[in-house]
Write a structure and sequence with these properties.
Blueprint: E1 2-4, E2 7-9, H1 24-29, H2 39-52, E3 57-60, H3 64-71, H4 80-86, H5 93-105, E4 109-112
Helix pairs in contact: 2-5, 4-5
């Protein structure tokens, strides 16, 4: 912490500048007001993306922080690593629904790479 101009200034220990953005018109067509917060809303959004033939999510595969920002938006126990880890256990109820939803979302993820290398 430092003092300047009569104020104490400090640097945050950790800061993640990544955000999730949405297309409001797409969300409205899916019957949502904001980004999905639960499985029911993810199902609605996935069904709308399938109906329109559009990618649901676009992310850069070389940007782990951006990918992490997206995964952290998922409801607890719905991140792909969580779902995969629990597949060994009982697959009933909410867990089975989460697995089915992740299987539906996966084809709607568009991956891009900004690190294009050419061999000369």
């Amino acid at each position: 912490m430092t003092e300047w101009n009569g104020y104490q200034w400090g640097m945050p220990f950790d800061f993640v500048p990544y955000i999730l953005a949405d297309q409001s018109s797409f969300l409205k067509r899916a019957g949502l007001e904001s980004l999905p917060l639960n499985k029911v809303q993810w199902v609605k959004l996935t069904q709308q993306a399938v109906a329109e033939g559009t990618p649901l999510i676009t992310m850069n595969i070389n940007d782990m922080y951006g990918t992490n920002a997206w995964l952290n938006h998922l409801e607890p126990k719905m991140a792909p690593d969580q779902v995969k880890r629990t597949q060994i256990d009982s697959q009933t109820g909410n867990l089975q629904q989460g697995i089915q939803l992740m299987n539906q979302i996966q084809p709607l993820i568009k991956l891009e790479s900004t690190n294009s290398h050419t061999d000369e």
